[in-house]
Amino acid sequence: MGLLGHLRWLKQVLASEFYTCCNFQAAEAAILLQKGMEKNQRRSLLKKVAGIQGLYRLLSERIDADVLDAPESTVSTMSVGYDHVSLEELKKTSGWGSWKPLWMCGYGLTDSTMGILGLGCIDELQQTVAMHLKPFGVRKFLYINTAPQPKMAAAIPTEFVPLEEMARCSDFITVCCMLSPGSQSICNSSMFSQMKDTTIFSNRSRGSVVNQDDLYQALASGHIAAAGLDVMVPEPLPTDHPLFKFKNCVILPHITNATWSRVVKGCYRDPPTALCKGEILTENLIIYILF
User: Fold this and answer.
1) Residue span of the signal peptide, if any (predicted)?
2) Against a cut of 0.70, is the pTM above it?
3) Spatial distance between the Cα atoms of 40 and 71, rounded to a whole number of angstroms
4) Cα separations (Å) of 195 from 131, 190, 203, 224?
5) What does the alpha-carbon distance between residue 199 and residue 189 come to, in Å, rounded to a whole number?
6) Alpha helical stretches, state H, the chain
7) Over the stretch 134-184, which tens digit does the pLDDT of each residue have?
8) Which is it for the CA torsion 165, 167, 169, 173, positive or negative?
9) Are 29 and 73 contacting, i.e. CB atoms less than 8 angstroms apart?
10) 31-33 and 54-57 as β-strands: parallel, antiparallel, unpaired?
C-alpha cells in the first residue's frame, strides 16, 4: 500500500470520530474556506456566510463592505498582502485604535530564565524544545523531574532544582511531564502563587497536570502574565469555558507537534503500528482530512 492508500485508509477510519469529538457540525464558530469562485458565485457566498463567526478568504477574493457586513466576528485572509482588503470598511468594523508605545508588546526570550517541568519525559521533547530556544538568547534553563537527568541536562545545559525554585525564578515555564499520581494537578495555586506576575505558563503534556480552576484564578488575579494550553480537561474544552474569556490565554486543539514531516514519515512507514505505539497523534492525522 502506497502513501495515497494510507491516506485514504486514515480518512475512512478517522473522519467520523473527528466530527464527533470536535462537534464540528454544531460548532458555534464556523469557518468557511473557499478555494476560489467565479463572479456569479459571489451572491451565493454572501448568503452562506450570513450568521457565521469567522470567514477565511484567499488573496484572489475581494473583502469589501458586502463581505464585512455578513460575518458576526472575524475575517482572515490567507495572504501576507492586503491589497484585496478594503481597509476603510475594515476600520469601521474593527476595534483597533491608534498605535501606542506598548501596544501588543510581549515578553522576549533574550536573557530570560526558562523553567522545564518534566525534562525528557515525552520522547525527549523538552530537550528538543530547549535546544531550539537556545539561539533566542535564553540565559538559563531550570528543570524539575522525578529524578535528575544528568545526560540530557548537560546537553542543554540546565540545572535540576525544586519546583518552588523553578516557579519563583522562571520567566517562562513549559510543561511536558507524564500524567501520574505524582503529577496530577502539580500545577496548582501553590505553584502559580510563587510565579512572577510577568511569567508565561504553557502546558503541552496532559490536561490533568494543571488545576484549571487554579489557573483561571491566577490569570484573573494577575499572578501570572499569560498561559498557553495545548491540552486541557475535557478535550475539546467547551466554548463557554471561562478560560476562553481571557485575551492572555491561548488554547490550541492538541496540535503543537503537528508537522507534515512527522505525519508523512510515520504514515508511510506503517500507519497501524505507528498509531498503536503513539508515534502519530490522531490530531495530526486530521490534517489529511482537512486539506
Assistant:
1) 1-15
2) no
3) 20
4) 24, 9, 15, 7
5) 14
6) 3-22, 42-48, 65-69, 87-93, 125-133, 150-155, 163-169, 189-194, 212-221, 260-269, 271-277, 282-290
7) 899 999 999 998 888 888 888 889 899 999 999 999 999 999 888 889 899
8) positive
9) yes
10) parallel
